[in-house]
Amino acid sequence: MRFDLTDLRLFLNVYETGSITAGARRTHMTLASASERIRGMEGTLGVALLLRAHRGVESTPAGRTLAHHARVVLGQIDRMRGELDHYGQGLKGHVRVLCNTTALTEHLPPVLGDFLRDHPRVSVDLQERTSVEIADALRAGACDIGVLADSADLQGLHTRVFRHDPLTLVVPRGHALANRRSVTLAEVADADFVGLIEGSALQEHLAHHARRGGKMLSYRVRLRGVDDVCKIVGRGVGIAIVPRAAAVRLGRTAGVQRVALADDWATRDLVLCVLDTLPAYADALVSYALRDAPVKTPPAGEPLADGRAETTSRTRSRPG
């Protein structure tokens, strides 16, 4: 059995996106070349890795096994390359962080700014993923630190609350819903939405809960940033679901009003998670991230990387 790293990265991208087309695009490869490589992998193994359907692909048990090992192998390779490259540049550490949309846009930039300023010989690789993907990546050893919604399955992870992160509906000023105290997603699912680009962690989260209610959200436009989403909503184009922190920050300038979401899954915390003991430089980043964390007395448990007690290592029933 001979798979090169490109094969493994391609298959993992296809597995994560649920589409050969999207996986090929993420791997910077043509669809024809990607399809040929995957067929070659299946031929080498003598077993199907993917079940092809009109709207995408699903992994077979063999495919899921391959994806798990591909994630581990590629994670180790990326970490080796990154750390050796950075040592060669005079750096002493490289921290891999995965986070969801809200953490990336609202909370982590000032944390990373302070940390990197104070630790000039450490670099950070920051990538956006859905909360479910982040939890899986942590358990597979594919990243050092994860910042994700507490609605994900956190089994086996050491966690601390990072920030409160409820989601809220934003509507244009004067909209028919503007005077409502709260709504559910089911009540507004048939409206025209403004959202983030396909593949963003927040949009995957919303799509999941819409599907659970038998709905599919309709978007008039998708944009790259939450700021742009709120500005377009303020111009009367549609409605949107965004982190409340962003809605509060942008309410006046974007011309939007907030309406609380009554769904349980919209009331959530961002948690910072690690799997095991971290190197000192990564441990320092955890300490910076938790400096402004909500004050909360956790139950007794194992210490997290910064020496404080973890809140829990638990399984949650709601994916997110």
TrEMBL record:
User: Has the keyword Transferase been applied to this entry?
Assistant: no
Q: Which CDD domains match?
A: PBP2_LTTR_like_1
Q: Which residues cross the membrane?
A: none
Q: Which InterPro entries match?
A: HTH-type_LysR_regulators (IPR050950), LysR_HTH_N (IPR000847), LysR_subst-bd (IPR005119), WH-like_DNA-bd_sf (IPR036388), WH_DNA-bd_sf (IPR036390)
Keyword Transcription recorded: yes
Q: Which ranges carry the HTH lysR-type domain? A: 3-60
Question: What is the protein name for this chain?
Answer: LysR family transcriptional regulator
Q: Which organism is it from?
A: Achromobacter spanius
